[in-house]
Specification:
This protein has helices at 30-41, 49-56, 67-81, and strands at residues 4-5, 10-13, 18-21, 24-27, 47-48, 84-86, 88-92, 96-100. The chain is α+β, with helices and mostly antiparallel strands. Strand 7 (88-92) and strand 8 (96-100) form a beta hairpin.
Amino acid sequence: GAARGLDKGAGLDLRRFELSSDGHLIALTPAEMRVIEVLMRHHGEVLSRNELTEFALQRPLEPYDRSIDTIMSKLRRKLADAHVDNPRIRGVRSHGYVLDVAEAPS
């Protein structure tokens, strides 16, 4: 199928843990929902693994804790499976993650 973006017809249902893109529903876990919510609110801004862990998992980041990376991997896979390529979640080495939103062509 053709690639889609979340910017057109996207919706986030916080009660049902669903992300929709052009009528396609993407079921998310509560932690994935909190991650995509905070990334969407701060799109274009690099959020640290610590900030994301505290918001999504509601606990501080522990040494050697890879939980947020696992959530990001699963979230990226779900977006890819739904052919959503805009925005995309990008890892920023030794900093965290950012939601990149491509500008619509004018």
